[in-house]
Amino acid sequence: MKVYRRLEDFKKLDNAVVTSGMFDGVHLGHKKVISRLLEVSQNCGGESVVITFWPHPRMVLNADDCSDLKLLSTIGEKMDLFGELGVHHFLVIPFTRAFSELTSDAFIRSVLVEAIGTKKLVIGYDHRFGRNREGSFEFLCQNAHVYGFDVEEIASEDIDHMAISSSRIREALLSCAIEDANHLLGYEYALSGIVVKGDQIGRTLGFPTANIQVEESYKLIPGDGIYAIEAIYGDKSYRGMLSIGIRPTVDGKNRTIEANLFDFHKEIYGEHLTIKFCKYLRPEEKFTGLEELRQMIQLDKENTLRYFAERDRAK
Predict the structure, then answer these.
(1) Per DSSP, what are the bridge partners of residue 244?
(2) pLDDT for 1 beyond 70
(3) Where would you tag: which of 8, 35, 87, 164 has the fewest CB atoms within 10 A of its CB?
(4) Predicted TM-score of the model (pTM)
């Protein structure tokens, strides 16, 4: 997949099949659009193009009031997910105040037609673009002959009668419904960060942890509790368990993310770790002391191992 960080770097194509959007999480609904995009591009001998925008519009238009903005994917994660899907071209258009003022007509002419060479546009249900989201599917259909490309809208996707949306997935993650979120994503939700030094209480209990500092303040952290996880370090995967919360038993004040990896004995301070959330085990609790906490962590490990054993048998 070819990646472009500016529109100026993109070389106009002869037969571009295009979609655009924020695609937060690249969930199953988005994948339905991408699947159709790839199918159309293959049938017509064209090249698939995904256009997205960064930073998120709220970071630009409401910079002083976006502390509550929580996204499912960073731009790097989004790029990796589209690469895995087999997209030919991935264009990231910098979102600025000036860009936000483009009318839908100006966006279509300057970006889709003149810069990209769009011959077919595939969009998700109720997708809009341009200033004040004025560009609708109906607008595109009415003016397609003027712009010289065809337009196709993909219906919204449901799973088990649940409409797929990034907002629904965010709600599931924040309420610790990790398996529901993974079901709608089509993969296990993940976050990445740098391992930093903590107070090493876990080490004294026989369960050393890697404290993970997520660098992107906008990246959504699932709700507080204990999870079964898989961790990616380098090119290897390790199973383990993870705690998110304030650690009330030791009178913690700050929210931390601490992973205990099974059969892992390396010191990795300052290094990068990716966590995949597999199953929610229990809420964070306050215990009477460290011994009761240690016993609960041991039970968490047994439940985590049991979960992975059952998952392996089901494969």
Answers:
(1) 225, 257
(2) yes
(3) 8
(4) 0.93
